[in-house]
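Example 3.
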Amino acid sequence: MSKLVCKGVSKKYKDKLAVKNVDLTLESGKIYGLIGRNGAGKSTLLSLMSAQAPLTAGSVEIDGEPVWENQKSLNRICFSRELNVSGNNGIAGMKIKDYLKMAALYYPAWDAELAARLVDAFEIDIKKQIMKANKGMLSAVTITIALASKAEFTFLDEPVAGLDVIAREYFYKELLSEFSESGRCFVISTHIIEEAANVFEDVIILRNGEIIANENTQELIDRCKYVSGLEEAVNKATSGVETHHAEMIGRAKTVAAILRGGEHIEENEDVTVKPMSLQNIFVALCGEEVQQ
Amino acid sequence: MKLKMWLWVSFKNLVWVLAISVFYSLMMSTEEHPILSRLELMPYYLTIGGWMILCVLSGVSLFYYIPLSVSLGSTRKACFFGLQMIKIIPCVIITALCLAIACFIKSDVTAGVLKLLPVIFMVLLSGGSIGAIISCVKLRFGKAGAIIMVALFAIIGGVNGFFLASNGKFNFAKLNMDGDSTLTLIVGLVTFVLFAGSVITQYLSLKKYEVKLI
């Protein structure tokens, strides 16, 4: 099993620390969900792991080999970035077919057949210039590059942002099919959490450049509960338990409780304990507390 | 290093130079001097057109092919060598084309071209180098830096050009140097400084290059 290991990874832009001392291990044969609010550092972390941005501190290695300026390691990574359509810089003026040709040239394990199939399935007009393509088509191009690259560690940044529901369903189907066939490692950053939650084996939650959760998705969901009832009863039931995102409506209170090993909250006539979805957990951990 | 990709970019730049030069020839051809009779002046158009086009394309490459290459998993070191390739290859081929024209068409002008071949190569190389320096300065200091550099090069180039022309040292119309080795030396020195400057600035720009947009 291959491993990509980040040790003490930090990235500073002028005075702002975008990624703070991140320790993270990615294993092949897993799909990771990378979630966080806008500006939490998701894209920066993916850039750092794929050596598209230099580290301020720390190291990134694949099976003990550094990733920075190491072609051998870089051949095992694909970070399919969002495409720029502004037309000022970059490849906005390039035709999609030329971009795909370039990708085929660079990725040693490029699967031309799969790329052609995805181009057909997503109805990508390859003769179009990137700047003239709509958002859905651009997302489809980044997905095509990511899947057809066959890279052992593949990172997708907001891959479904511009896709309609049918295209998104198709993407998840293709992703799972590719995953089960190849056992590659995928890291998918997304804001459409609920839809992707079933696909993520592990979830990484970033807040202000720091990893605040990194564990098996189901285990995280199992140990996070909504506790609601009268304020006193909820406070009593959650005493000593890590709670987040308290919401008050009159005397009624709801909190998100995150249970550690052995902790348990008993439901009784005064408090109700309900399961949380991954999206709810994300909101509880990253959202501001709301008091009404 | 993705040699194929950088070769493709070099040849693409070369095609631009050829297209512009042919365009120049068409623009300059008249009934008295149809295009075929202007072929002997083609090295002149190739040099002037090449200088301008290579200056622009060499500069654009930093913003176009480098983010693309690095985002597709290339090392910065490979990109650095790629940038040197796209500076040098078109110059070599254009100089070879000038040589071929001079060999096939015998006239006073083309006889001058044969003497000027090293100068033609160096002028072309200086164009690519200037473009490369300006693009690196733009990357580091933004548009203001690039504008200052362009103005600086324009002033230096203009003053030197005026000086050379007014002294009759270099007559493009005749394309004849009359064996003046001082000019070759000056052009060589300037080209060396520009090329070395472009290599250093490109190295520094790529050393810690970060892909922000592709």
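Residues 108-166 of chain B form the longest helix (59 residues). The helical segments of chain B are 3-28, 42-71, 76-104, 108-166, 181-207.
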